[in-house]
UniProtKB/TrEMBL annotation:
Protein name: 4a-hydroxytetrahydrobiopterin dehydratase
UniProt similarity note: Belongs to the pterin-4-alpha-carbinolamine dehydratase family.
Keywords: Lyase, Signal
GO terms, molecular function: 4-alpha-hydroxytetrahydrobiopterin dehydratase activity
Organism of origin: Cocos nucifera (Coconut palm)
Matches recorded under Gene3D superfamilies: Transcriptional coactivator/pterin dehydratase
Secretion signal span: 1-24
SUPFAM superfamilies, per database record: PCD-like (SSF55248)
Database matches in InterPro entries: PCD_sf, Pterin_deHydtase
Catalyses which reaction(s): (4aS,6R)-4a-hydroxy-L-erythro-5,6,7,8-tetrahydrobiopterin = (6R)-L-erythro-6,7-dihydrobiopterin + H2O
């Protein structure tokens, strides 16, 4: 009986140590659902927000990134911008100083979503 109690106590301790991590991931999943079009990704163990767009041309991609840069600069929070090929604009947002996501990342994603960029995008945006 004492061995069973010890075993159950060990399980409770182990679960308690992992519970904050499980809850943190769940909170990030809920927040990600609130910022339409963004995906929660793990890259080399770092949680990031990721989104892709198809732009009309290389120069439209640069215009798109300038609009994003204006918002990011105003926020004092700078995402990773990638123009891949000639028309694939990709953005990764994460807080470099902590190596993961903070509330500011989700705020920036929402503000990027509010930028009017339809004139720069191909007919159907990649998600």
């Amino acid at each position: 009986m004492a061995l069973l109690c010890l075993f159950l106590l060990l399980i409770v301790v182990l679960l308690a140590s992992f519970w904050p991590l499980v809850m943190e991931v769940r909170v990030m999943e809920v927040r990600t659902a609130l910022v339409q079009g963004w995906n929660l990704v793990s890259e080399d163990g770092v949680m990031k927000l990721h989104r892709s767009w198809k732009v009309k041309s290389f120069t439209k991609g640069l215009e798109f990134f300038q609009l994003v840069a204006d918002v990011a600069e105003a926020e004092g929070h700078h995402p990773d911008l990638h123009l891949v090929g000639w028309n694939n604009a990709k953005i990764d947002i994460w807080t470099h100083s902590i190596g993961g996501l903070t509330e500011n990342d989700f705020i920036l994603a929402a503000k990027i979503n509010s930028i009017h960029v339809e004139h720069l995008l191909r007919r159907k945006a990649a998600v």
